[in-house]
Amino acid sequence: MTVTGHPGPEAGSASLTVGQVAAAAGVTANAVRFYERYGVITAHRNSGNARRFTVDAICRIRLALAAQRVGLTLKESADILAGIPPLSRDLGQWLAAGEELVRAGRARVDQLQATVNELATMDFLQDTRPHR
């Protein structure tokens, strides 16, 4: 989500361009815009109406990328990261968000493992209903 109008105090530190965030996070500029659209990161507009991001956008994107690899959605990542204000130096908040992403990722892996185990037994192919 891009904030326009009268930005908050963190906007003064929102100095990274889309391209800079993309390069540092290892994604394309389009991916940066995608993460913004889904609320993983937030931009402010400068006087020329160009998007500017705080440096923590890079960490947010990297965390969301890692979470995606275990099957978490961008919404799930955005919801978890939403509790961390821009430019937060509170390591506890970042650690808590990381731990929540790990918990959610492990839950997803457990779901996938249960599905794989079901497939491996092929029990689901047996018709347990009585025949008439």
From TrEMBL:
Coiled coil: none annotated. Gene3D superfamilies: 1.10.1660.10. It comes from the Bacteria. Keywords: DNA-binding. Pfam families: MerR_1. Residues 15-83 form the HTH merR-type domain. The keyword Cytoplasm does not apply. This is MerR family transcriptional regulator.
